């Protein structure tokens, strides 16, 4: 079985070196190598989180949305603590889609009991008020 964590390590190194375009290219290749159902592959969800973070660094909100749109396929396999909704909410927020972001953040807040917002942009939590 594909060891996602081992494959993410060099991508993390490239990220620290600010080689963001290379990171995204490597993530796309890695994602393509994962067989269906991707949600069955341990740690495959992390590819989405990495890709969204890198797309944010590049200011490519369409790329971030494309990756976050893949997240719902992991809902059944992951512990339901709101991380998927939070990821999707962050992308919606950054794209200026505040109604959608608010709905996702409300779900994430409820499921995570507020933990999803710890250490994150305080504007995300303000949207809940």
List keywords for this structure.
63% helix; single chain; mainly alpha
Q: Can you characterise this structure?
A:
The chain is mostly helical. 63% of the residues lie in helices and 0% in strands. The longest helix is centred in the last third of the chain and has 15 residues, at 98-112. The protein is globular and about 40 Å long. The model has no long low-confidence stretch (mean pLDDT 94).
Q: List the total number of helices.
A: 7
- What distance lies between the first and last C-alpha atoms, to the nearest angstrom? 45 Å
Question: Compute the gyration radius: what is it?
Answer: 15 Å
User: What are the segments in which pLDDT stays under 50 over at least 5 consecutive residues?
Assistant: none
How would a textbook summarize the main sheet?
A: none
β-strand amount = under 5%
- SSE sequence, one letter per element: HHHHHHH
Q: Which percent range fits the helix content?
A: 55-70%
Shape: globular
Oligomer state of the chains in this structure:
single chain
Mean pLDDT: 94
Helical/strand content category = mainly alpha
Number of strands: 0
Topology:
Elements: H1 4-16, H2 20-33, H3 45-58, H4 61-68, H5 83-94, H6 98-112, H7 122-126
Helix pairs in contact: 1-2, 2-3, 3-4, 4-5, 5-6
Short account of what is shown:
The protein is mainly alpha-helical and about 130 residues long. Helices cover about 65% and strands about 0% of the residues. The longest helix has 15 residues, at about 100-110.
